[in-house]
Amino acid sequence: MKTITILGSTGSIGTQALSLVRLHPDRYRVAALTAHRNADLFFEQVREFRPAFAALTGVRPGEEPPIPDGLSFCTFAFGPDALHTAAADVPADMVLVSIVGIAGLAGVLDALNAGRQVLLANKEALVTGGHLVTDLAARVGKPLLPVDSEHSAIFQCLQGAAGNTPVSLLLTASGGPFRTWPREKIDRATPAEALRHPNWSMGAKITVDSASMFNKALEIMEARWLFGLPAEKIRVVVHPQSIVHSAVEFADGAVVAQLGIPDMRVPIGYAMSYPERLPTGGERLDLIRMASLTFEEGDPVRFPALRLAGECLRAGGAACTVLNGANEAAVAAFLQEKIPFGGITRLVEEAVEALPGLPADSIDEIYEADRRARQFVAERMKGGL
Question: Hey, what domains does the chain have and what are their CATH numbers?
């Protein structure tokens, strides 16, 4: 029996993790749950999985919803400070960090400092604080277990490497809804078009990131810290069928890939049960029925995020934090129809150029770089795009 804390239990990753807990009640017990503001679903989860601690972190003081009858077995908390309590103070074997954005960085550091095994479904923790997180994970002897499908695939491929260092990583990408669109049409895309992902059902922010390929830029940065390879050895390969989840190339030319039906329960379950593999209840891949698998080069001209990822990694300091913060602010503005889709990339690139050389040696410096990136986007938008 393993105990698990889930930061972000009402999102896509959190709900699927709980479905695995439900499928294997003899293997897992929920220690703590946190969510942002989705109180109705959250209280249903608390009732079913009976954690000792539960928190709505996006609820301000004075706005706390009434706690339903029958939940007195659980200690409730509200506000962002409750993330620390859930990650560090509630005893648990592992902490699944599946909250969105830079807020995940503190949760990861808190869990590692408390000696928890971190199941990482938050890109931004490594994008903004990769050196802090990986150094701490090494010191406490708790290697990160990746949950993103691409990084989980690479991690799985490396299990049989017998110490052989890969010469390159192949990060696959679906290409999103604009894979075949010309650059001019992409720049004019609407929120409804950007949210129409061909393969996955995800939250609005990550779906827009998939359309712009900023999700892949963040994954390049994440892979750099998880697997220790520089940006030039991490290649993005567009694979519309999303059957090959990523691959690893070795010195002898062998390429080892992980394949499967698109189902996030597989990488979530592998992290939860590692090194075992447990049934997820999902569909099995039948290679005989597959019509074809196709691959294309990632296009940094139509999708400049792919170029910006390498530039920010090579720049060092807080450049990746600036990219991430500017992108979060720009995506929010796009979803509110304040800027065109092409404005996301323009704002991020301008922020990176305007804020060079910021330090990132502490979490406070990282937060300051993030604040300045968001402030830059807000000020720049006042002049129109």
Answer: 2-143 (3.40.50.720), 149-296 (no CATH), 316-385 (1.10.1740.10)
